[in-house]
Write a structure and sequence with these properties.
Elements: E1 10-12, E2 15-17, E3 22-23, E4 27-28, E5 33-35, E6 38-41, E7 46-49, H1 57-68, E8 75-77, H2 83-86, H3 89-95, E9 100-103, H4 105-115, E10 121-123, E11 129-131, E12 137-142, E13 152-156, E14 161-165, H5 185-200, H6 204-214, E15 221-224, H7 234-245, E16 251-258, H8 264-278, E17 284-288, H9 294-303, E18 304-312, H10 320-332, E19 338-345, H11 351-359, E20 365-369, H12 374-392
Parallel strand pairs: 7-8, 8-9, 9-10, 14-15, 16-17, 16-18, 18-19, 19-20
Antiparallel strand pairs: 1-6, 2-5, 3-4, 6-7, 11-12, 12-13, 13-14
The structure holds MU-OXO-diiron (FEO).
MU-OXO-diiron is lined by residues 80, 82, 84-85, 147, 166, 225-226.
Length: 393
């Protein structure tokens, strides 16, 4: 059995990248990433759905040639223009100059702007269809801001298969298996949460609109632009996306994020974690913002109901690694969380006040000076215990 064969009409022609250290030059790739691309073959026409990053174009072209033999691709459907999926456009056009680029108006503008590509284009609107011959009908659904303004999805009607772009995608290169049934599902789902929180998290309301648009469709298979093709776990990944985009916590755990130069704020964070554990709250994920990657902090904040942030006062005045995290929450509009704040200082207490200005002036918070007095340590314990009580109830 050829594991790249998703059906007799759909063949996987994506590539794995285990060389790039950081996606978008920001997000670490401990398991690599795949750039998924698909060949859809009808009796009359052949379409490539989504492309690959520029460094992998030559390999993909070889794969397409060997798969198609005497035939050639007629269409290149671009669901999403971000260069991890469109970088190979010029190379494809160089080999097949007559290939028609299919996208919506914004996509076509971006194709010209990024790559200067002209020639044959087919501009599609929401609900338009494209036939590759009898029994192979592609229908387009515009789903803006999942993750760029031009994003759309393509639905292969007869096979109930959705080419979803970044939606339902995840970090993690493919290890042989393309379909989720044989894949490391739990790793991919965890990496989907990290991908969502890092990259798509700001666009929850648009993801919700897209999910509503998809609601009437029967979907048996989801072919995203990253990670495995979902067939065994379609309902699970749709539910995960629904919950994440409604900013609904996935569990009753607590994320603790702290910054600490000399260990005093770290000690307060430890006291808080101890108190939460004594209250039976779990899971608790705890991060030093200076050493943990931002994507892990954001993924935890999207996952857990509770959030405790502890920061010393620094020149800014929030300690910069913590400030980056707080800004990340504000940008993504994370809501429906029970947040408490702890601020430390040596002479000028501003950190917790400024965090409250950014996240909510009514948030419970406490401050301590220097290494903290007994009363100040008790206040942190009390703040954490009260957080635990609210979460448990
Ligand atoms: Fe995989 Fe938004 O690009």
């Amino acid at each position: 059995m050829d594991v790249n064969c998703i059906s007799d009409k759909i063949y996987y022609i994506g590539v794995n990248d285990r060389t790039t250290a950081k996606f978008e030059a920001m997000w670490p790739l401990p398991y690599g990433v795949s750039y998924n691309s698909y060949l859809v073959t009808g009796p009359d026409k052949v379409a490539i759905v989504d492309g690959v990053e520029v460094g992998h174009a030559a390999r993909q072209i070889d794969e397409i040639k060997s798969r198609l033999g005497d035939r050639k691709p007629d269409y290149l459907i671009i669901n999403h223009m971000e260069p991890d999926h469109s970088g190979g456009i010029s190379a494809l056009r160089a080999v097949w100059p007559d290939i028609t680029i299919v996208g919506n108006g914004q996509t076509i503008n971006m194709v010209r702007g990024f790559y200067g590509v002209e020639g044959s284009v087919l501009k599609v609107k929401d609900g338009d269809t494209l036939s590759l011959g009898e029994g192979v009908t592609l229908r387009f659904a515009l789903t803006p801001m999942v993750h760029w303004p031009e994003t759309m999805m393509t639905y292969l009607v007869e096979e109930e298969t959705l080419f979803s772009g970044d939606a339902f995608g995840c970090f993690g290169a493919l290890a042989g298996y393309v379909l989720d049934g044989g894949a490391q599902t739990e790793m991919y789902l965890a990496e989907m949460e990290r991908y969502y929180a890092s990259i798509v998290g700001k666009y929850g309301q648009f993801v919700q609109k897209a999910l509503q648009k998809l609601q009437p469709l029967a979907i048996s298979t989801i072919c995203p632009t990253h990670g495995p093709v979902w067939r065994s776990h379609v309902a699970r990944v749709v539910d995960l996306y629904d919950r994440l985009s409604r900013y609904e916590p996935l569990d009753n755990g607590v994320t603790i994020v702290y910054g600490s130069m000399y260990g005093n704020t770290a000690m307060m964070a430890e006291r808080a974690a101890h108190e939460l554990a004594c209250a039976g709250v779990g899971p608790i994920e705890m991060f030093n913002a200076s050493t943990a990657d931002l994507s892990r902090l954001l993924a935890a904040a999207f996952r857990h109901k509770g959030l405790l942030i502890a920061s010393p006062t620094y020149s800014e005045p929030i300690f910069p690694p913590v400030k980056t995290f707080v800004d990340g929450l504000v940008i993504r509009g994370l809501k429906n969380r029970d947040i408490v704040l702890v601020g430390g200082c040596s002479w000028s207490e501003r950190a917790s006040a400024l965090m409250a200005e950014l996240l909510g002036t009514d948030l419970p918070r406490t401050t301590f000076k220097h290494a903290g007095s007994c009363d100040e340590h008790d206040a942190v314990r009390k703040l954490a215990a009260e957080l635990g009580t609210r979460i448990n109830n």
